[in-house]
Amino acid sequence: MEDSTASSTDYFNLKNMKHIVDALDRNQKVFPNILHCIGNTPLVKLSNIPKEEGLECDLYVKCEFLNPGGSVKDRIAYRMVLDAEERGILKLGKSVIIEPTSGNTGIGLALASAVRGYRCIIVLPEKMSDEKVNTLMALGAEIIRTPTEAPSESPESNISVAKRLVTEIPDAVLLDQYNNVCNPLAHYDTTAEEILWSLDDDIDMVVITTGTCGTVSGVAHKIKERCPKCIIVGVDPYGSILAQPEELNTSDVQLYEVEGIGYDFLPRVLDRSVVDRWVKTDDSGSLPMARKLIQKEGLLCGGSSGAAVAGAVQAAKTLERGQRCVVLLPDSIRNYMTKLISDQWMEARGFQATPRKEHLWWWDKPINVGMLQEPTSISSTTTLSEALATLRTTGKALLTVVDDKGSIRGVFTADDARRRLANFPGSHAEELAKFIVKKYYKVNLSDEPSLGAISRLLDISPYVVVVKTESTIERAVGVLTSEDILRFIALDGKQVNGN
């Protein structure tokens, strides 16, 4: 294993650091390969959203989702690779690049690896979209998934697993975006320069979402040097601890749907001293705003871009007519075609109302216990062979997995077990916890969900688990499939016609 991170006694004295990547020639007609197309993304003035939100200032967006790999992370991935090659840490045809990521840095590194000929292993949490995984695999990267809920210090986290892999795989290199000075330096040299060039060094506010924090740190340092009046706003989701003052981070949010921003630790590349103001955002504001950016402004961007603009709407209300606010849009729609772009996915999470279909007599009818298949539950301590035997004897398509208090912890299906064994390291001798699906579609019986809402969920899932909350215990009370909906429509429809 080689340590790829650059060291500096004054880590953020970026002005004196060696520049490896020059700014792109804006008049270049032909590029030697796709990596040379990274950067030089357009700055676009928004027209409709500022009016709707009552903003007086001019609102511009930096379209980083138009980078070749679909995100702002292309910049740092290429920069880290070039730096490691120059310092002899990466050796062409020999080194193996390993990186923990929420996906976009991984795509950038896989892109660079494909062009320059490296083996690439990406470690990312299960929360991240299938589109990211498929893109990584198409680029030739190898994928390791880790539990979303694992904290950064856990041996099961993507960071810990990546660190372990570099000790086990010969010639492995961890470029380490959280600690690598090339992360903020790439933005100091290029992203910030492009923003300043576009607006002739006259900017009043820049709004940037924070993940590894290299973007906000690098951009802010350069802009503060050239445009001291500019206010730097960091956007951090509830459930993350990056913002200041610390009381802003107080929240009961454990998991959030927006990908690529927020952390439960402070990356070394974060320099809070250059952030003038922090704004916290949540899924209910960020994801609908992403949809609005697509529908109202024609910008095919992702959820973190929605968070950025949602944060900017809060912060930019202090700006007056004629002042300029720039918002960085980190990634693209491509990564979320089965998530925030899906109406059913948004409805399942309460970010969008289920449409009414008055011509369908059954659509608005609430479900009741009589419609439900009674679930078969197994203990979370059950072995895999016992779980498979239960599936055979009951003839059920799935089992609900419960803890010692009877609270549901996930579901188990033969198909998911097969997929786990076929696509991830492991064997049938492992404990059941390795095969439990924790991300599944569910509704609470107390909310009186309608058959229409269930039907929408069944468009994107083979089953829906119905739960009921009793005190702090969430019990599974039933499972619904398309067959159950059809059976009810047929039976109750006869009663309706008979009446």
UniProtKB/TrEMBL annotation:
Q: What reaction does this enzyme carry out catalytically?
A: L-homocysteine + L-serine = L,L-cystathionine + H2O
**Keywords in alphabetical order:** Amino-acid biosynthesis, CBS domain, Cysteine biosynthesis, Lyase, Pyridoxal phosphate
Matching PANTHER family: CYSTATHIONINE BETA-SYNTHASE
GO CC terms in record: cytoplasm
Q: Does the keyword RNA-binding apply?
A: no
Recorded GO molecular functions are: cystathionine beta-synthase activity; pyridoxal phosphate binding
Record organism: Pieris brassicae
Name recorded for this polypeptide: Cystathionine beta-synthase
Which GO biological process entries does UniProt record here? cysteine biosynthetic process from serine; cysteine biosynthetic process via cystathionine
Q: Where are the transmembrane segments?
A: none
Name the Enzyme Commission number(s) assigned to this protein: 4.2.1.22
State the needed cofactors, names only. Answer: pyridoxal 5'-phosphate
Q: What is known about what this protein does?
A: Hydro-lyase catalyzing the first step of the transsulfuration pathway, where the hydroxyl group of L-serine is displaced by L-homocysteine in a beta-replacement reaction to form L-cystathionine, the precursor of L-cysteine. This catabolic route allows the elimination of L-methionine and the toxic metabolite L-homocysteine. Also involved in the production of hydrogen sulfide, a gasotransmitter with signaling and cytoprotective effects on neurons.
What family is it from?
Answer: Belongs to the cysteine synthase/cystathionine beta-synthase family.
From which domain of life does this come? Eukaryota
What is the main EC category here?
A: lyase
Q: What are the CBS domain coordinates in residue numbering? A: 371-430
Pathway info = Amino-acid biosynthesis; L-cysteine biosynthesis; L-cysteine from L-homocysteine and L-serine: step 1/2
Q: Which Gene3D superfamilies match?
A: 3.40.50.1100, CBS-domain (3.10.580.10)
